[in-house]
Design brief:
alpha+beta, three-stranded antiparallel sheet, 1 helix, 3 strands
Length: 124
């Protein structure tokens, strides 16, 4: 059943389904894909970099807090991200003693944190 000419919108007048090819060539499609990939990378990459930087700063601060209580005589404190640590992947706090020996103080977590527990004799 063919629709009347009055029922066909002017935008579709003369349109035959399946006629014509793609509006863009192969080169234009490749350029469009490249632009989309670059745009997505431009949106995602800054967030990833900011997240990594924030986690590193938080781990350093958490390691300083842990080191002050567990290794007050340490020469240096360092927070490291390790994929194959004893408690799984995440941030670990390491202390370096005077002789150069390193001691693992605490696992800080995949997202670094320090839980401060109030002891009965020392209010926090």
């Amino acid at each position: 059943m063919q629709p009347d000419d009055d029922e066909i919108p002017p935008e579709l007048a003369g349109y035959e389904p399946g006629e014509g090819g793609a509006l863009r060539g192969r080169r234009m499609r490749q350029m469009a894909r490249l632009v989309v990939v670059l745009a997505v990378a431009g949106l995602v990459l800054p967030g990833v970099l900011i997240g990594i930087g924030t986690a590193a700063r938080t781990a350093d601060l958490a390691c300083t807090v842990v080191g002050a209580s567990r290794a007050p005589d340490a020469v240096a404190l360092e927070a490291r991200f390790e994929l194959s640590g004893g408690d799984g992947p995440g941030w670990y706090c390491w202390a370096t003693e005077f002789g150069g020996r390193e001691i693992q103080l605490q696992f800080l977590g995949f997202i670094p944190e320090v839980r401060v527990v109030e002891s009965p004799g020392n209010p926090v």
